[in-house]
């Protein structure tokens, strides 16, 4: 490659640059640049042609000015001229300018592409390289379009120089990344794969990057690369450090190539061919062996290169997850790194071990390092390393070491970093629940957790402990006792008060026998915390008090006194006030029997996914831990619980503890389908607080006829559709716009338009109150049939989320894009949830999307009509209904309705002018369904006869049902 | 209250740093450098808020002066102080440059100690400061001199010491105005205003009481009414001007100005600025610029500019400079002008036409042919306005000094004995015509 000699250096450019660097101020710099630009302009404009040298010089100056941040809008032509020069330096500057300042001027692009084409077809390797670099640097779609077919040819041609091949491979990779659709490998595939056998290591390194990227997209096409890669790898691994001359880096043979090979292998499952597999295993063993050898050099580069290969090999071993021997060895190797001086190595070791822990073969091996990991958690300086250590502890935990790990994590929690506390709390809670053999231990752990890190304990954690205590009779007494003791501490966390209030309210009677925890003592203890708590907690405590009245009639007077006191009954908070008033009345009016029924002990909770787990998953995202989690619990279910101890009472236990037949099902987020409100708690569920995230404020509990509180607990599950939803739906069969729904709070307007199988619907949500709606969310779902065909959806509804806040009196708009894929009968459901003054409102409506919306009117003559009518003569294709008129039989109204239906109303077809005849085609994505309609009114009898014939039987039935409601 | 004051050179190196209050840490110096001087995007606002700290800066050539505060100060006060500081430094060592600041840093610290006390501005009158802060080092001062300084600095009239004596009582009065204009291509005035200053240099003995009078419309009208002569009122009304707003040197008795609109004061010794004012009505525009720009195809532009002087033929305008901006893709310019010299300055993207002198009611023109390089950019040339600089020996606002009376009761010289000089200079501010 011709180097730029001193004499060839551009003096003018050097002077210009040094002038600019010497400028004292920005203004001076701008002045100098303006002067230079004017000079260049006059030179370019000048009549006499510039020689290559000056052209190059000026283009260089322009480039420099551009890189300083000034706009350059000329000089492109000169740069393109430089491309056709024969001098390397001039060509190089030309390409540099083009790749920095590419301009989408079509004329120029054509010239540039032409120049590149010339260079690509030239025999000069440096020119070819320059052209390839330019393509890769620009990497635009136009470039890809022009050269995507050319480059593979250069890449695999036999006579191409090695350096050009290298450039071509990387250039192709770049083009593939920007526009994968244009780079079609097709016939080149096998020849590209064979580049792995190339003599030149540089070519192999470049090609492997390309192959890795391509094989991620279409693994099958590149399957052959596995055996080639393995043989290549084994050759490198087995070579002595002197074999590969230029490619040996600090005594490690070709480390980059090895890493890339190992990474390529990670795209594929273990090779099926025994020989190949044997060879690969041998390679991996050699790599692991080499790690044990004493280092050949003290230099950090040597160990870095070696470790890079080692870690890549370990990830491959973990990826295969089939060689117990290798897994254990990898684990031991990592164990050594756990005590290494290098923080980075310790971090990497912990991270890799996390994945190893989830493999059944190496789980036990990982467990041997528990002491080291615990030590790391306590002593590591770097918080990110501590975080990894915590992750690993979580991953390696099982029934045998749960107690130790949970205890360690708890003790660490006191000093833990604030940034990881919440996550630690969740992990402790999950582990404690998952591996609890003895539920008193579980209760102790969670209460400890609340005591140590109360602020970080989320709602889910204490909901969960209450669910478990309620569902398990054997711990209730113990829980009540422990809670009572915990509450005696002078300063308790509010979460502790919540748990305490709830548990004592339910099971206070179990410890009432002891004079030290007599009912009054319990009550006084709770009430001493009352004034320090926030409103939701106070509301919960009030509920606990009313439960006390039921449990211990002797406390009734004291509690009524408290409820009657002004600070309760006239509390400024509506919720508290209402509870105080209602509970007071309830306690004074209702007889003990009634009280006992209303305030019965909470029934066991239905099984559901541990909400904590869901929370952790949400926190972590779809990252490594959730996968581990999933696999973890699979193993858990399979090995530990799958056996003997799945008794009837474990079945009632926590959901994640594998009580359902498929242990992973609960993790997949399938919630118990029964709406929570329908649980058998409706009468006594005063303490609905624990249910779901809907918040402790029970909805403004309406007083029922019989004076009891009926509190349909607001839940996150969509409410069942309104009863009048069908009626609403019918209103919209023949029209597209109008008011869909209205109550005191909310009005929903609708505007829709349809074209062929596509529709667009505008929903307008109007807030009729003067108060803001908070957390306003809408979801559209397709019920029943629509959803069951997951593979063949019938309707495709797309929408964007709406603003979560709707101001009083304001209106927000939502657009739904609807695509009809095939015919359907059920309308999609629209679920609306929002908070109005703290209470959750939950509303489900049917969206007025019916099959007839996708009608295309068809005009046809009488003759055609009857011909088609006859063609559709199979009994299934016809649907007929005779029904009484619901509305007036006015001709104009009927006509308007039939037109609104979307069909063409055909005149002069039916011999009887009284009858109406319509024709239309229903457009779906998959097919078109022709429909013919005939409506025969009988004015005397106020009856209609409706006949429909469609090319698809389900359509005619559905249409018939729909239309019968309209007339 | 100003917390501290920093002076930087153009590279952002700190030349002077004086912190007055504890709430300003050392890192404030760097914060300003990083966020303002070295900011990626040029900071245009003179006030910058960084981490609850406000920086007020002014720039003099390449030097940055920044005042820092954590409190909610009156920004106008801070800027007034910074300008005053610049004036004081100029009075002591001439131009504010990096070189001068480095050479005089001891003096500057001394000045800063004197004119700011715990962040509160003190006496910043150059004349007064010069009596006790000198560049000659410590001069042996007698007891009397010292007590005199004390009494002056602490006394009621801080800007003048007692016992000044001159053989010739003399005073110089300069009315300096800058006229700003924006005119449409058709010759319609879009905006115009004059900002003026009355600068005085007085060499008067004792403690004289001065009274300054000018053709302020309010005063003239009042007098016209007092005289009860309609004719007089009309004739004087013609020549009176409406002053939009004005500010005075601290020596002027504001109470008297408020009640009688008379300007009376005991002047400081030496040079000072008596008042500043602004007018917007009835401005005499000294020059009219008539542009004519024609685009001939994509690669050529023809420009013709005529300037007309619009004042008495006996007066001579000086230092006239017309700046005609050229498009950014200019590749060559040919200029022809009858008078003066014209040149295309590529570094400024403009044709600069200079005329040394020009009498009133004259006309002169320039024509230029600009060659353009065709660019692939579709952007049209924005046609920036043609700007102009000049100096004329009259006040474009029409302000006239009617009298300046000097009374000194204790010493035996009267108003007639004082030699008075009055001079009017009108300069261009931003004087632009769109083309």
Description:
- The complex is a heterodimer of chains A (967) and B (435).
- Chain A has 967 residues and is of the alpha+beta class.
- In chain A, 52% of the residues lie in helices and 12% in strands.
- Chain A has 41 helices and 18 strands.
- In chain A, the strands form five sheets. In chain A, strands 13, 14, 15, 16, 17 and 18 form a six-stranded antiparallel sheet that branches.
- Chain A is extended, with a radius of gyration of 38 Å.
- Chain A starts with 10 loop residues before the first helix and ends with a helix.
- Mean pLDDT of chain A is 77; it is low at 1-7, 622-716 and 786-791.
- In chain B, strands 11-13-9-8-23-21-16-19-18 form a nine-stranded mixed sheet, with no helix packed on it.
- Chain B has helices at residues 27-37, 75-93, 98-103, 105-115, 126-132, 143-154, 217-227, 230-239, 254-260, and strands at 4-8, 14-19, 47-50, 53-60, 63-69, 116-117, 120-121, 170-183, 189-203, 209-214, 245-248, 263-265, 270-279, 287-296, 300-309, 316-325, 330-337, 341-345, 350-359, 363-372, 386-392, 401-407, 419-433.
- In chain B, helix 7 (217-227) packs antiparallel against helix 8.
- In chain B, strand 6 and strand 7 form a beta hairpin.
- Helices cover 22% and strands 41% of the residues of chain B.
- With 435 residues, chain B is α+β, with helices and mostly antiparallel strands.
- The A-B interface holds A 24-26, 31-32, 34-35, 37-39, 41-42, 44-45, 73-74, 76, 103, 105, 108 and B 10, 42, 62, 328-332, 346-349, 371, 373, 375-377, 379.
- Percentage of residues in helical conformation of chain B: 10-25%
Form type of chain B: globular
Query: What is the count of helical runs of chain A?
Result: 41
Total DSSP E strands of chain A = 18
* Spatial separation of the terminal alpha carbons of chain A: 88 Å
Number of strands of chain B: 23
Gap from first CA to last CA of chain B: 47 Å
Provide mean pLDDT of chain A, rounded: 77
Please give the largest β-sheet of chain A. Answer: 6 strands, antiparallel
